[in-house]
Each structure stands twice: as C-alpha cells, then as structure tokens.
Amino acid sequence: MVGMGFGKIKKAIIPAAGLGTRVLPASKAVPKEMLNIVDKPAIQYIVEEAVRAGIEDILIITNRGKGVIEDHFDHAYELERNLEGNPAKEQILEQVKAVADLANVYFLRQKITKGLGHAVLCGQSFIGSEPFAVMYGDDVIINDEDPVIAQLARVSEEFGCGVLGVNEVPRKDVPKYCSLGIEPLRERVMRVNEIIEKPTEDQILSCYSILGRVILPPEIFGMLEAGCVGTPAGQEYYLTDAMAALGKAGKMLAVDFLGKRYDMGNKLGILQANCEVALRHPEIGADFAAYLKALAATLG
User: Fold this and answer.
1) Which end of the chain is more exposed for a tag (fewer CB within 10 A), N or C?
2) Are 184 and 154 within 8 A, CB to CB?
3) 1: confidence class by pLDDT, cuts 50, 70, 90
4) Exposure on the CB side of residue 67, measured as CA atoms within 13 A
5) Are strands 162-168 and 252-256 parallel, antiparallel or unpaired?
6) Domains in the chain, number
C-alpha cells in the first residue's frame, strides 16, 4: 500500500446540491449550507477549514435555488460602501470583505441529481490529474488547532493513497452511515479493506463510519464512470462503491480524526452546533453561558 506519496493537496470539492429535506421548512428558501452557526453560515466553516489546511482552489457543487451561496463568497460592494467610514463598523467590514478573499472559490451547478458520486464526477475537469479533498456540505467539523482535512492530507501525502475521515459511532447509528472493515496500521491510522453502505445489523464490520471528509486519487473518476448503476429514475453514481473498490485494491486508508462534527442536515445537529460554538464565541460566550445557567435553573 505504501507508495511514493502524493503531492500537497491543493484542491477540494464541496458537494452542496442536496435539497435539505430533513430540515424543512427552514431549507425551503435558504440552502441548508447557508443556515447559520451563530454568525457565519455553515459552508463558510467548511471553506475556512480547507483554507487553514493549505487548500487553494475550491469547487462548490450547487443546483437550482442556491445562488445565495455564490453571492456569499463574492464582494457585496453596496454593503461594504455602507460600512466604510464608520469606526464602529470597521471590524465587521473587514470580516465581510475577508469572506470574498478566503480562497479561489468556484461554482458548478449539478443540473441533474444523480448521487454524491455524480457531484464529485462533475468536478473532474476542475481537478484534472491531482489528488483532491472532498468535504461534504452537510458536515461542519471543528478543530481549531488542526483542521480535519489537514489530518487526512498528511497521511495521504505520506502514503500516496486515498484517505477516509472516520470516527466510531454508536452501533445503533452505523446503519445510517456505513461500516468499514479495517486493520490498524498505527495510532489513529487504519487500512481499509471493505466498506458496506448502510449495513444491516448482521453486516456491520466495525463501528467506524465515514463522516464528511475524504481525500481521493484522480483515478476515482474513471471508477465512478465505470460503476454507474442504472435505477428506475435513471442512473446514479455511488461514491462509496468506488471508494470500496480502492480499499479492496489496497489503495485506501482511514484516519480516526480529531474534531467535533456537527450534522447540518439534521435539526438537532444545527442546534448543537449553535449552542456549542456560541459558548466559545469571544463576543457572546460568557453571556450565553450565563443565559444557559439561568435557563437551567428555571427548568429545575
């Protein structure tokens, strides 16, 4: 499995074309990726994670009704002009302007939804022949000291293969995700031999599941095209199947990453993210903690 190593991971794809049905009606007019965690939309946390890991070029896959994501990562000249010259608004002006300059952010519309694999395949010409990151748009994962995608990238660059970001989940939750057949390689790094998507109870290989971050080699594109599966609604491209094939070929590792994951496609996950990030927020953290203590006292 150990190869010559990859070069630095400089490109990322963020699939953000999902409909957000689990958080309706909030996502009816506002993409779930734009739902706030305190004072920033969820997708900004993902882009900031990529930037902190040294990723320079980011492709966000969207679909109809998600133009507001593109607007968010552009300059808002009228807003900026209104903030200029007001000393009290100087800090917020810099924050607003900085969003547009985080990285080279590009957008591509997925005109027909054909699964996560198809969203990744849409980015083939953007990626070219480089290894790349995929950062799921539903998953905000916070580690202020060591971005999760950087943890994966270091292993990918060292071993020259794909890397999955995984954590152990409660056994009862494994059927919601996937189950990995793994062999320990070193601390927090494992070989991946098998992946079963949404396993039944008797199919569970381990309680490790893929959670929102992966590094993939460019050969994944050919595997996705070859593995396209016909369905009554057309054709679907299954990313998990292609990653499982890489595992069987000895070309996939997993990293048990360090970071707190929030499922932004889930109402409880959104509330948890807002509560926990608010407690650490430099402006409101202390006041919010006091509010929660007072609230808890009223509830007995």
Assistant:
1) C
2) no
3) very low
4) 2
5) parallel
6) 1
Q: What angle do CA 118, 113, 169 make, to 5 degrees?
A: 70
DSSP symbols for 192-244: EEEEEES--GGG---SEEEEEEEEE-TTHHHHHHHT-EEETTEEE--HHHHHH
Residue type, 30: V
- Flag whether the pTM goes above 0.85: yes
| Structural domain includes residue 4 | no
- Rounded CA-CA distance 256/279 in Å is 26
Q: What number of CA atoms fall less than 13 Å from residue 244's CA on the CB side?
A: 15
Which whole-number Å values give the CA distances from 299 to 152, 234, 278, 296, in the listed order?
43, 52, 21, 5
- Sequence-distant (6+) residues with CB within 8 A of 289 are 279
26 occurs within a structural domain: yes
Please give the Cα distance from 155 to 53 (Å, whole number): 13
CATH number of the domain at 156, please.
3.90.550.10
Q: Decide: helix, strand or coil at residue 162.
A: strand
d(C-alpha 149, C-alpha 153), whole Å: 6
Are 17 and 110 spatial neighbours (Cβ–Cβ below 8 Å)?
yes
Asked if residue 3 belongs to a domain, the reply is no
**Tokens describing residue 110:** 């997925």
- Give residue 159's domain range: 11-299
Domain assignment of residue 128, yes or no? yes
CA–CA distance, 52 with 58 (Å, rounded to integer)? 13
